[in-house]
Specification:
alpha+beta; Immunoglobulin-like; 6-stranded antiparallel sheet; 4-stranded antiparallel sheet; 10 strands; 45% strand; elongated; NDR1-like
Length: 223
């Protein structure tokens, strides 16, 4: 009768060491299956650490009604602004985060949209466990009628104090590289309320208190 090899399965019955090897393999596969199931549950039900956002610094250089002239045409009433923000976005997860939609900052005064700025473009990648600082500029003007009567009245009150309440709303969508197909897309939505004094002309430093942005549903953000 042929003898069994010690390192492979025998047609006449596996030897003892072969049985132990198969038993260990079975346990290993079971553990791997459990870990894979846990990963799917974590990604699908939102246990992945949430993205964080903070405003480290901000400066308001101009914020006022003005007249815009173009050639011989009559001046056009506008509302002009010049806002700069240092926005810190943290990826607290253990995977690289990829923006599947642009991360957009919308600047709002009295619920009236003033400006949209792209913070990070579609396809931009953010390393795991890292904080990235984006410098965002909102410079321009909108027709004066964009600020309705209530917004104009609010502006007059705030102008008297010298401090303006400007909200920066963030919206976007991310996924995690290497975990595609497991329902890991996350919509991003934040509200960053800013109290900004009008900065004096020149390079003088204006003290700003760091603001932690609050998570909110993206559908509340102006587009």
């Amino acid at each position: 009768m042929a003898k069994c090899c010690k390192c492979c399965c025998c047609p006449y019955g596996p030897p003892r060491n072969c049985r132990r090897w198969f038993a260990g393999l079975g346990i290993g596969l079971a553990v791997a299956a459990v870990l894979a199931a846990i990963t799917v549950v974590v990604l699908r039900f939102g246990v992945v650490p949430q993205v964080k956002a903070k405003v480290y610094d901000a400066r308001l250089n101009s914020f006022a009604f003005a007249n815009r002239t173009a050639g011989a045409a009559a001046p056009t009433p506008v509302f002009a602004f010049d806002i700069s923000v240092a926005l810190a976005v943290r990826n607290p997860s253990g995977a690289v985060m990829k923006h599947t939609r642009p991360l957009v900052a919308t600047f709002v005064f009295h619920d009236r949209r003033l400006y949209n700025a792209t913070v990070a473009g579609e396809g931009h990648k953010h390393k795991m466990l890292k904080t990235k600082v984006h410098v965002v500029h909102a410079v321009g003007d909108v027709p004066a009628y964009v600020l309705d009567a209530a917004a104009e009245e609010d502006f007059k009150k705030q102008n008297a104090t010298g401090v303006f309440g400007v909200e920066m709303r963030l919206s976007g969508e991310v996924t995690y590289v290497g975990l595609d197909g497991l329902g890991n897309k996350r919509k991003l939505g934040f509200s960053c309320p800013l109290a900004l004094p009008l900065a004096p002309p020149g390079p003088e430093v204006v003290v700003f208190a760091e603001v932690t942005c609050k998570a909110q549903e993206p559908d509340k953000i102006y587009f």
